[in-house]
Write a sequence for this structure.
């Protein structure tokens, strides 16, 4: 294919050269020749037109090449037959030199044979000696000169072809390596999950990848050529110091900091910044890779909380079993004293009440440990919810609390332990009722999304101060005189076993809202 293209290019070049020489020949012949032969010009023009037409109609390049030789030697032979001047004979050898342009052994040999045949023809026909003084031995030198020219050109063609082949192989290899490197770098840049950016030394964005747009929120067309405010105000000093270090050629690898998104949200990131050098080893730009650590940090926090819950569960199980046995005996004996003695009736009443409270705490201890024995089955969430609402219906009426329920997905199934999900809802409704001693409203909304169920519970109670909101989910922390501090811990532990989530928000004077998510039941996935 490369040989085909090479011949085609050479054909085009020769066409231009021969047309130029043809017109030069006409001009010179007109002014120099005493009796110009018009037939010479016409025949040369016809031959060039034939070859030009073959090129225009895309004849095979090799055919056009040989047609060039035939037309050229026919034209020179015709001119020489009319005017057998020495200069015309010399043009027979020019054809051999011209054939070298193709770097083809066959072309050179073919051109040489045509030249020798024409010279022999004129020699045999005695035309060679009509107007020029020659000895017969000169024909040998003509042929010898022709053959030497051919040999030299063949050697040059061989050397040139070999050189071109080596150069072509190296060039193709270099192009392949360059293409592979470009594709690798482009793939690394485009499909990397980390944010990649290139900045000029004055802080303007040169290029960013898709992950940068997803993590930071800016589109490439919004920020290229501009400076973006992604560094939080309190960290600008540290960022400028790091920038100066990189400008001096230092590479900063995997340091943790915080950046600001387009929407103003602060995110935890791990950044690597490297200088980009030119050939003179001068820093011309900065290359940065940012990894979003938000999910990783949340996972670490969740795992720490899970470890705490697991430890609390193990402690709760051990303590509960140790306490419940003597507690049962104490409760029995005090019950007997309470029934038989009116003298200590007031004391035994208090004692039984406190024992019941201790028993309640022990029960919550056991609930804290119980999710390890969770039995997951398919349950209709509406059934679980209705059972819990029915349980608190009378108490809501007594405390003047109105429960407003809105269920957008009444026929939704979840994979759960029904008793434990009931316990979660019971604890939350109990907290809501206790937060509204003077009455109020509880809004309970249930919505379904792609793979889960969201339960939103909001009361209009007194609310929780912001300084306490972070502590109420810790084991044994409570703001209630009779609380155990384990209610929310039990809820979170149960939801963890169900692969759900829990979020609480509160405003003093407005109330508290809790958002739960529970995965839906999926055929063939949940068991």
């Amino acid at each position: 294919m490369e040989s085909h293209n090479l011949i085609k290019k050479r054909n085009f070049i020769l066409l231009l050269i021969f047309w130029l020489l043809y017109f030069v020949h006409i001009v010179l012949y007109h002014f120099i020749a005493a009796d110009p032969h018009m037939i010479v010009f016409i025949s040369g023009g016809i031959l060039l037109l034939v070859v030009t037409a073959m090129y225009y109609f895309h004849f095979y390049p090799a055919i056009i090449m040989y047609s060039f030789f035939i037309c050229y030697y026919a034209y020179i032979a015709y001119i020489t037959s009319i005017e057998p001047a020495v200069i015309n004979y010399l043009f027979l050898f020019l054809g051999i030199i011209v054939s070298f342009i193709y770097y083809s052994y066959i072309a050179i040999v073919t051109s040489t044979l045509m030249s020798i045949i024409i010279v022999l023809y004129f020699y045999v026909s005695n035309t060679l000696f009509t107007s020029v003084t020659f000895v017969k031995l000169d024909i040998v030198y003509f042929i010898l000169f022709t053959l030497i020219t051919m040999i030299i050109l063949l050697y040059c063609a061989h050397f040139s072809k070999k050189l071109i082949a080596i150069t072509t192989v190296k060039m193709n290899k270099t192009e392949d390596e360059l293409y592979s490197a470009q594709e690798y770098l482009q793939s690394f840049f485009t499909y990397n999950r980390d944010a990649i950016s290139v900045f000029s030394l004055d802080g303007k964005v040169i290029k960013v990848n898709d992950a940068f747009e997803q993590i930071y929120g800016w589109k490439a067309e919004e920020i290229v050529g501009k400076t973006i405010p992604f560094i939080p105000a309190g960290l600008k000093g540290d960022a400028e110091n790091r920038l100066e270090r990189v400008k001096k050629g230092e590479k900063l690898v995997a340091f943790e900091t915080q950046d600001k998104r387009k929407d103003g949200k602060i995110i935890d990131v791990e950044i690597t910044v490297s200088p980009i050098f030119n050939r003179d080893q001068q820093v011309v730009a900065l290359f940065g890779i940012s990894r979003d650590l938000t999910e990783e940090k949340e996972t670490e926090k969740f795992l720490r909380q899970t470890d705490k819950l697991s430890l609390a569960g193990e402690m709760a199980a051990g303590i509960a079993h140790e306490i419940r046995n003597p507690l049962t005996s104490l409760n029995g004996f005090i019950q007997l004293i309470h029934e038989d003695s009116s003298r200590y009736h007031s004391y035994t009443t208090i004692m039984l009440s406190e024992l019941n409270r201790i028993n309640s705490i022990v029960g919550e201890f056991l609930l804290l440990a119980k999710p390890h024995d969770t039995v997951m089955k398919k349950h209709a969430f509406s059934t679980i919810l209705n059972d819990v609402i029915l349980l608190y219906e009378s108490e809501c009426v007594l405390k003047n609390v109105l429960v407003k329920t809105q269920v957008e997905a009444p026929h939704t199934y979840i994979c759960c332990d029904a008793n434990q999900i009931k316990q979660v809802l019971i604890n939350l409704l109990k907290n809501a009722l206790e937060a509204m001693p003077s009455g109020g409203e509880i809004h309970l909304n249930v919505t379904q999304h792609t793979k889960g169920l969201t339960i939103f519970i909001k009361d209009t109670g007194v609310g929780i101060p912001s300084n306490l909101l972070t502590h109420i989910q810790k084991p044994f922390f409570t703001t209630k005189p009779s609380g155990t501090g384990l209610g929310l811990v039990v809820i979170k532990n149960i939801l963890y076993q169900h692969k759900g989530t829990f979020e609480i928000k509160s405003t003093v004077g407005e109330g508290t809202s809790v958002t739960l998510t529970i995965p839906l039941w999926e055929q063939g996935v949940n068991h």
About this structure: The longest strand covers residues 266-277. Residues 293-373 form a domain with the Helix Hairpins fold (CATH 1.10.287). The radius of gyration is 49 Å. DSSP finds 15 helices and twelve strands in the chain.
